[in-house]
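ligand=cobalt (II) ion
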Amino acid sequence: MKHLPRLFENNRAWAAEVLRNDPAFFTRLSRQQAPSYLWIGCSDSRVPANQIVGLMPGEMFVHRNVANVFVHSDLNALSALHFAVAVLRVSHVIVCGHYGCGGVLAALRGDRHGLVDNWLRHVSDVRDKHRARLAPRGTEAEEHDRLCKLNVVEQVLNVTNTTVVRDAWARGQSLAVHGWIYGIEDGLLEDLGITGTSEAEVAATYAQAVEALAGFSSTPSAPASAPSRPPG
Ligand code: CO
């Protein structure tokens, strides 16, 4: 192989390994896919969707972009969502962010990188939407973590506000939308508690999730003997 020989070698070894465990694997998959999940995640190379949840090809439909943003007018994301929900009939849509997201950090800082700034403006909008209630506090790293989570919560809301999800629920299709965050430092997933199987449930869990983030504290609780802060 002339170009990227290591990748082709890896591919042959992988395909052989899969066939050793299941000789009919590719033949079966070539006939149809029937995934139960749609994953909407960040393009970050450290967050490989199938691998971190231990799923094989055929088990999860995947859409990834910088900072796992779901914008109402993004035809690419909407098409993936529509195909997954209306055609493949997945039961779960998972919006998964991750700690240490460079896109979220750029949005938090207002850094200038070029074209991508316009895309990340959606994450800055999330920051600004909650600015009044969630005043910046703590270290930048803590603010970064919080915006990574808040971004997931908002993108879950965006997914559930689409005609795709609303129509699925209106016709009685069983569909749950979840908000998760992944830790690059420990490889573990965390459920942010914004799961919805109806518009009412999303509204309730959205409010709870934002409230939980508003209660985020960067400093340990003051000891009982410490003088209380002056009012105001
Ligand atoms: Co990221």
